[in-house]
Amino acid sequence: MSHKWIITLFVFIGVSYSLSAQNNTAYPEKSYRSHISLNGEKADITIESDSYPWYPFDRRIGYSLYGSQYRKARCSRDWGIVLSAVIAPASTLLIIKGINEDTFGNVIVGALGVAGGLGAGIPLWVKGRKELDWMMDDYNRRYGPQSLESNLSLGATTNGIGLAFNF
Question: What is the span of the domain harbouring residue 84?
């Protein structure tokens, strides 16, 4: 009987791992995806026949550019995944076991675990994911390949009005 509980717990852990196994690689804007070719570890991205050196957004870049903000976002997301995808299902198993064995204490502890795991885990997961997405978007905007189109713009400067030709 106890081996079924262990197998079920490992199934829940496997499912939770598959939920969190998303690739954190940053790419240019989605409209360019049909023109991208990646080669090698330091990938070259070819967009409309021009090549740019590109480093995917990974832990090394996250820590070097965003520091503790990146660490906090990853920690929030990771703990949210653990609480909502491991602790809550394990607590559900404890509730089922308490009902089967008619032990009221296991049911109460399991219910508190489910409520705490989902009540704290889901918001942490969402908050961490939003912060990581913001960092990836910021990285793409600041360091990603820019548009190759030239433009003429008119705008305010410190000395009045300026005309800029960007190419």
Answer: 2-166
